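Milestone 3.1: sequence recovery, worked example.
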């Protein structure tokens, strides 16, 4: 008969082995559950949308960044939204709204302008501000451009070998032009991954001046940028719309500028869920018509 102490040691070893087995099983179950949960999650699709008449028209974040520039320069020049529609449709066809350094023959830039055709040097055309102004310079010389079909207006500027191709981008371009001109509230949204760094208020101010002009700005104690859109409104009658111009611009450039929130007229776009939400009661009460609050990461 086994000694009692030996029996106790054997029993203890058996219990220890059983507990170890149960821990391994539990850990394996947790790992399988976590793997299945990860497999069920839908990967984030980074994209921006302009909503018009119940339809969302999508651009990738870098394309939305370009759209913000084109619309901003058009607004600075006092051009109608139709000019932005034409520019966006042209850019979508020529470069997918990207500032590329290659193309057919010597074509470069957003609009695939050719140095050999008098559009400027390669260095000038690769400056998106220069090339956008060059496009609008040519567009405004087209008689009645705002009343022409997209294909005719774009072709008068571009002299493309495929003039009908611009028409396929008209609906998307019109939605973005309308939104960037503030004709609908909360019409631009972006679904983005988390910021990859801290935002820089000075960078936001510099980009604002480049795109929309020297609007008054204030940096708050918590690092947010307050933008006053009133200089964009001639008599104040469209101040709310001008506020949405700035708000939609801010959402469109949220990816490169590390923007996490944009607030205007009692509503806030939140990067975490990519949607506009009613602002909290205190923020809504403090909202000033035409004033946009831009909150940066960090």
């Amino acid at each position: 008969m086994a000694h009692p102490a030996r029996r106790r040691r054997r029993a203890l070893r058996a219990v220890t082995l059983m507990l170890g087995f149960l821990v391994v099983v539990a850990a394996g179950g947790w790992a399988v559950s976590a793997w299945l949960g990860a497999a069920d999650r839908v990967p984030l699709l980074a994209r921006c949308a302009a909503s018009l008449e119940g339809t969302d028209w999508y651009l990738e974040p870098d394309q939305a960044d370009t759209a913000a520039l084109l619309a901003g320069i058009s607004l600075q020049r006092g051009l109608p939204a139709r000019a932005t529609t034409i520019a966006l449709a042209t850019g979508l066809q020529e470069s997918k709204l990207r500032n590329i350094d290659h193309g057919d023959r010597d074509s470069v830039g957003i609009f695939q302008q050719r140095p050999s055709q008098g559009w400027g040097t390669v260095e000038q055309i690769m400056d998106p501000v220069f090339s956008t102004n060059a496009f609008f310079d040519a567009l405004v010389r087209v008689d009645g451009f705002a009343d022409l079909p997209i294909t005719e207006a774009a072709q008068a500027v571009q002299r493309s070998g495929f003039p009908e191709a611009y028409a396929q981008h008209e609906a998307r371009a019109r939605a973005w032009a309308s939104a960037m001109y503030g004709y609908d509230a909360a019409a631009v949204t972006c679904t983005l991954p988390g910021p990859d760094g801290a935002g820089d208020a000075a960078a936001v101010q510099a980009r604002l001046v480049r795109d929309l002009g020297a609007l008054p700005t204030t940096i708050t104690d918590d690092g947010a940028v307050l933008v006053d859109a009133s200089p964009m409104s001639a008599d104040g009658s469209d101040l709310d719309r001008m506020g949405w111009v700035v708000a939609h611009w801010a959402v469109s450039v949220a990816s490169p500028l590390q923007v996490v929130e944009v607030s205007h007229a009692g509503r806030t776009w939140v990067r975490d869920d990519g949607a506009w939400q009613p602002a909290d009661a205190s923020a809504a009460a403090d909202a000033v018509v035409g004033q946009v609050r831009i909150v940066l990461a960090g």
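Strands lie at 47-52, 55-59, 188-191, 217-219, 225-228, 259-264, 267-270, 275-278, 291-296. Confidence is low (pLDDT under 50) at residues 19-39.
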